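# step 3/5: fold
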Amino acid sequence: MQSIIQILKVNDLKSGISKKTGNPYEMQDAEALLLNDDGSIGCVGVLQVPKALREVVKPGTFTATFALHADFTSRRITSILTGLVPVPGRAAK
């Protein structure tokens, strides 16, 4: 599944110990826009940044690829960012 997104800001890495499991965790997210085909804003949200892409994610406009997966605790099927390709000529504003 592919979407055009604009990453506005990459938030600081958060780390701690889970109150529920007692296990350490690290997570990072980014403020992002989901863009319609015509470039207009479809919605605004927070995008979870997977560990493998932490060094790649930066402000800009990208074709983002996603995979579906079942969340371990809630069992809800959610999408996970799997790749980013810069969109030529669409720099961060």
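# step 4/5: annotate
The chain has a mean pLDDT of 92.
# step 5/5: archive (pending)
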